[in-house]
User: Which sequence fits this backbone?
């Protein structure tokens, strides 16, 4: 609430001359701030700054509201993460969705939503894998019991009609374990791959399972228990919860995505470009990274175009030093932009000539 009163004070004093944008007035901005509609307030002020780039009071007001909006988003994201840690995923996602209604343009909220949904899907996949491993181990034990019962009661396997259901279930689980084992092998999680493939081979001794096991590199210090049919790995902790190389990569991307969203909301395009470079280096094919990179490039182009136009206007008014400052700031965002660099070089040359004229007047 204290931030709201501070904003009211700024609106009433330093920005009383804020131009109207059609039907948008200071009263409307006040109402948006009072109801937490940061998206509308920020979008209106950003448009005003584009029309009046020299108005410092507008920039100060925008910065104040931006800070308040960032705190709001950070609070909502923190609350959502706490709910997710308690496995209350739907409530966590609703926290972000509600916040995005108040600030739909927020990159931090959008990225946080994506990261939460990714984590939820990973947790679902992890639990499904744990169930599959438990089911495979149980079916393997059941197979042993069926064999013992056949020894005690010859002909049992031909009389028990439920055996058909068991055989079909065993075959289905074996195929799933084989698929997961091959996938884990591709991802470099050889310990989990071996565990899945050994179970698959124990349930259904297929050529695919044997060949997949042969392709696995040797793993040191693997605890195994010999049996007549297979070697079962006895893990010290649930194998499905081991972090694979792909999962580690995803965690790194998630952390960088959150940082990227935060700097984007602060309009720090320089930091956003640096973080984007790190994400592209880690996973250039990541769908969210590719999407955000396209957005980033568009934002940079728009920012450079506005900076060039603003600098040209300052230059035409012979405010060359100010034009240089504007173009230098833009060059930090787009260091490879040739037009910016050419304008900056010409402006610096003009400044140098003016200084020489001042020092050596005729």
Assistant:
């Amino acid at each position: 609430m204290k931030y709201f009163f501070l904003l009211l004070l700024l609106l009433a004093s330093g920005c009383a001359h804020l131009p109207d944008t059609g039907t948008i007035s200071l009263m409307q901005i006040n109402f948006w701030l009072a109801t937490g509609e940061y998206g509308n307030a920020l979008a209106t002020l950003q448009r005003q700054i584009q029309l009046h780039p020299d108005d410092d009071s507008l920039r100060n007001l925008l910065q104040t509201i931006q800070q308040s909006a960032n705190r709001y988003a950070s609070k909502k994201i923190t609350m959502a993460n706490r709910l997710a840690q308690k496995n209350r995923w739907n409530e966590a996602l609703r926290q972000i969705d509600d916040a995005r209604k108040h600030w739909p343009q927020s990159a931090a909220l959008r990225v946080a939503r994506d990261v939460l949904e990714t984590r939820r899907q990973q947790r679902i996949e992890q639990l499904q894998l744990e169930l599959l491993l438990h089911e495979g181990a149980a079916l393997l034990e059941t197979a042993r019991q069926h064999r013992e019962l056949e020894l005690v009661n010859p002909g049992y396997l031909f009389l028990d009609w439920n055996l058909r259901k068991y055989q079909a279930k065993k075959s289905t689980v074996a195929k799933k374990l084989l698929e997961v084992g091959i996938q884990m092998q591709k991802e470099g999680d050889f310990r989990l791959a071996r565990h899945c493939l050994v179970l698959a081979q124990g349930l259904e001794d297929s050529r695919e399972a044997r060949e997949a096991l042969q392709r696995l590199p040797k793993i040191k210090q693997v605890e195994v228990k010999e049996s007549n049919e297979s070697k079962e790995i006895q893990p010290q902790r649930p194998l499905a919860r081991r972090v694979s190389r792909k999962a580690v990569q995803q965690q790194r991307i998630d952390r960088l995505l959150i940082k990227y969203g935060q700097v984007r909301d602060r309009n720090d395009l320089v930091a956003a470009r640096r973080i984007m470079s790190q994400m592209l280096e880690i996973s250039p094919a990541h769908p969210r990274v590719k999407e955000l990179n396209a957005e980033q490039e568009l934002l940079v182009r728009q920012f450079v175009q506005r900076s060039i136009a603003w600098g040209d206007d300052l230059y035409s008014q012979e405010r060359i030093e100010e034009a240089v400052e504007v173009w230098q700031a833009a060059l930090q965002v787009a260091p490879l932009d040739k037009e910016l660099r050419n304008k900056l070089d010409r402006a610096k040359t003009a400044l140098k000539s003016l200084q020489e004229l001042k020092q050596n007047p005729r």
